[in-house]
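Dear support,

I submitted the protein below through the web form. The confirmation email said the job was done, but the results page showed an empty box. After a refresh the structure appeared. I'm attaching both so you can tell me whether what I see now is the final result or a partial one.
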Amino acid sequence: MALSVVIYEDNQLLRESLSSMVKINEALQLTGAFENVLQIEEQIKKYAPDVVFMDIDMPGMTGIEAVKKIRTFNTELPILMLTVFDDNTHVFEAICAGASGYLLKKHISTKLFDAIDEMMAGGAPMSPSIARMVVASMQQKPALNVYQLTPREKEILHSLSKGNSYKLIASEFQISMDTVRTHIKRIYEKLHVHSQTEAVSKAINEKLV
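What the results page shows now:
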């Protein structure tokens, strides 16, 4: 069954281009494409998409504010931020708001479909420059291990923060998917979070890895 997609992008040409990309992919189905997020709650509840593409810089309400609003009533919906911004402020605000991934617009034509696959597999896709920036920020000031994470749990949390899926983490550490899930469940319990987005956000904000 095709994944339903809703697009939020104020640039008409890019919105139409994204819509066309979705329409030519048989695994996706375009449910809606909007130039602003002023009716975000009503639209998400009405169309119940499987994936959302979200621009950051939009009139009336920013994409980051829209993500925060979505997360008040839907914590699981995969939201991929699409933006020209690659600065720390926008990236961290988007991640902390609850974004599932962060893709620079210049990479849309080559990485969009892979990013969707990665999100649906439990990953958090990011453009390479974004991932490097996140990792660099996390390495600046190691925190005390107040959450009692084991060395392996810290390794897995670090891998999660790079946007890696459960499958990639299993391959990286040569462990089973079930073992990965067990480690991640324990990480969530220790950090007092309920999702990968929350865990990565907390890791970034508190310099946990």
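Response: this is the final, complete result; the empty box was a page-load delay. The chain has two domains: 3-133, 141-205.
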